[in-house]
Each structure stands twice: as C-alpha cells, then as structure tokens.
Specification:
about 20% strand, about 400 residues, 12 helices, acyltransferase, Thiolase, two-stranded antiparallel ribbon, acyltransferase activity, transferring groups other than amino-acyl groups, globular, 10-stranded mixed beta sheet, alpha+beta, 12 strands
C-alpha cells in the first residue's frame, strides 16, 4: 500500500479575531496565499507539481467565499493548472482536509497534495453564513427542544463530568503557561512562517508571535471573570448548569492559516525531500449534537481500534481546547495522560482559527514528537453538530 507522508507543516502565528488584531487587516485569501507560498518555497518544491490544494474553512462567505482554496493558491503564484477545493467539517475542517489529502495519496489519486486551512474571524464573524436564518428548523421534529450553541454544550459537559470552576481555570492557566514557555524557548519557530502586516505606524512588520497567548495568566486571575453564556431560559431548561464557562476557559476568536505538504514516500525520495512523519490511522465520527463537543471520545477509541493500538501506545496528544471541559472530559473517559496532552499549550492560549486549527495542531504535534523523540502522536478535534476527527501519525 502507498504510504502518505508529511514533508512539512506550517502555520501563521495567531491574531486576535477582532478589529485591530494583528491579522485583521490581512485578507484571508492573502493570508493563506502567503502560507502556501512559503510552504513550497522553503521546501524547494515547484508548485506546478501539486496535484490539489484541499483547504478547510468554516465561514465560507464574504472574504472567504467562492472557493478560497483556489483563490489563495492563485494569490500565492501557483500555476493556473493547480486546482483547489474548500471543505467544511466545522472546527475540524483542516484536519479533514489532511485526511482527504492523505487518503488520496494512499488511493493513488495524488502524488503531491497540500492540506490547508484558514479562518479570518475578524473579517467573517462566526454565524455570518447563516445570515439570520435557522438552518436547524428542519430538525425540529427530531429535536423538538432545539439544538444549542456550543457554549451551552460546554456548560453541560462541565456539569456532567463534574468539573468545578477552579479545575477549568487551572487547566486554562496551564495552557497559557505552557504556550508562553514554548514560545520563549523557540519551540514554535519551525512551524510559524512570518506574515507581513502593517505595524502601528503603518510600516510593514513581520507577525511571528501568537497574539492570544498571555504569559501573565493565572488561575486566580481567571477566577474573577464572569460566565459568558448565562441565560435565564437555558438555566430553566438545564438546571444542572452552574455557569462555569468564561472567556478565560474558552478559546478566543482568532485569525490564522495553516498548511501541510503531503505526498507519497516515493515522490519525497525522488525530490530529495525528507519526510517528517507518516499517516498511520484516521477516524471520523458523529456524537450527540446537544453535548456536541464530546465526539473526541468515541473518535479516539475508533482511531485506536483501527490502528490496533491502546491509549498507552501514544506518546503525544493534541486535543483542541475549544473549551476547557473538552480535553478534561476526553482524558477522564479515555484514560489518556494529561501530562502528554497539549504540552505546548492549546487553543485556550494559542487561539482557535476554526478552519485552520487542524493544521495548527498537526504542526505543533509534529514538532513535539521530534523534540521528545516520541514515535506516535494522536490528534483529535471536537466539531460543530456533534462530530470529531482523530488522526494518528508516526514520526519518521
């Protein structure tokens, strides 16, 4: 069987997903285009050899409409012969792009493919694609009480798994501490490519540092934040909610882009490129759309079963920190070691640019495996609608 390998994985540094954020003045087509250009450039790859560019993006409207994958690769200067397609599996969109890319290589459909992701939450806000409509209206017969936004799902998870506010805030402070320490040690230097933006004085500067990481964050400081999702009607519907979710134990709105260079092992050798890892196993699953964010648990079990592995066989875990209860519930149910999880911080600190996050987690996990000498890494991502992707890679 053909082996799909990762030759490189890069990302932009995060920008606050609001006006005035470091990347808010950069069009998402230009942002992703810059990341794509630097990915092929630093690997000495002729972009004409790329069979496809598969890109994850959640809010495919406004600046991110009309197949941003194709627009970005053209903006990057790729030949017009290179196609691109944009996929949406909510927060796992670029992880799914990597699955599709690697599976295409394994199937013999591609020799070289790029899996990418982008999200400009400052320019295309969450929910913009609905434009005042209710996409869940046809589901009313099956879910007569209605589905709920993710913040309330996070509250339900915290209540069901009995996570107190102190535990959630302590985990969130850990995320900032680990991310700040990793950044100070240069641990992100290989995965981050610089993005030229306008500085405060209008002159061009390079954006290289995750803007959402706060080294000064403490659990005590987070304890002073008020719950973000309190709603009297929701409290009546879900009396078990104690309102523990705050901006401090949630991932911030973020801008960013990511990209992975994936190809057959034979093609990498032919081009004189050294593969960094190979794809070992894939899984995607659905779960309760009300709890919504718990899909990472069955997805992890499914990918381990497909690989014939146990949780103890994994050296490094990356679990997206959409909200603090998600990785905590995942670890509690799977038996995974939190000391091996998100050891350079997670989305609570680094940010969660929706469509780009899967690629960001993969780039970080790959760097950790190389730094620690670990062999296997498992990445999983909760997704809107109650889904999750899981991927196991093996460092080469």
């Amino acid at each position: 069987m053909t082996t799909a390998v990762i030759v490189d994985a890069v990302r932009s540094a995060s920008g606050k997903g609001k006006p005035g954020g470091a990347l808010s003045g950069t069009h998402p087509v230009a942002l992703l285009g810059d990341v794509l250009r630097q990915l092929v450039g630093r690997n000495g790859l002729d972009p004409a050899l790329v069979d496809d560019v598969i890109t994850g993006c959640v809010s495919q409207a406004g600046d991110q409409s009309l197949n941003i994958a194709r627009n970005a690769l053209l903006a990057a200067g790729f030949p017009e012969s290179v196609p691109g397609t944009t996929v949406d599996r909510q927060c796992g969109s670029s992880q799914q792009a990597a699955h599709f890319a690697a599976q295409g290589v394994i199937a013999g459909a591609y020799d070289i493919v790029i899996a990418a992701g982008v999200e400009s939450m400052s320019r295309v806000p969450m929910g913009f694609t609905a434009q005042g409509r209710n996409p869940f209206e046809p589901l009313a017969e099956r879910y007569p009480d209605g589905l709920i936004p993710q913040g309330y799902s996070a509250e339900l998870i915290a209540a069901r798994w009995k996570f107190g506010r102190e535990e959630l805030d302590a985990f969130s402070a850990r995320s900032h501490r680990l991310a700040a320490e990793a950044a100070a040690a240069g641990a992100f230097d290989r995965e981050i490519v610089p993005i030229t933006v306008a500085g405060p004085d209008g002159n061009p500067v390079e954006h290289r540092t995750d803007e959402t990481v706060r080294a000064s964050t403490t659990a005590e400081g987070l304890a002073g934040l008020k719950p973000a999702f309190y709603h009297e009607a929701m409290g009546a519907r879900f009396p078990e909610i104690d309102w523990r979710i705050t901006p401090g134990n949630s991932s911030p709105l973020t801008d960013g882009a990511s990209a992975m260079l994936i190809m057959t092992e034979e093609k990498a050798n032919e081009l004189g490129l050294t593969p960094r890892a190979r794809f070992h196993a894939f899984a995607v699953t659905g779960d309760d759309p009300l709890l919504m964010l718990t899909g990472v648990i069955p997805a992890t079990r499914k990918v381990l079963a497909r690989a014939g592995m146990s949780i103890d066989d994994i050296d490094v875990f990356e679990v997206n920190e959409a909200f603090a209860p998600v990785p905590l519930a995942w670890a509690k149910d799977t038996g995974a070691d939190l000391e091996k999880t998100n050891i350079r911080g997670g989305a609570i600190a680094i940010g969660h640019p929706l469509g780009a996050s899967g690629g960001r987690l993969m780039a970080t996990m790959l760097g950790i495996l190389e730094a620690t000498g670990g062999r296997y890494g498992l990445q999983t991502m909760c997704e809107g609608g109650g889904m999750a992707n899981a991927t196991i890679i093996e460092r080469l």
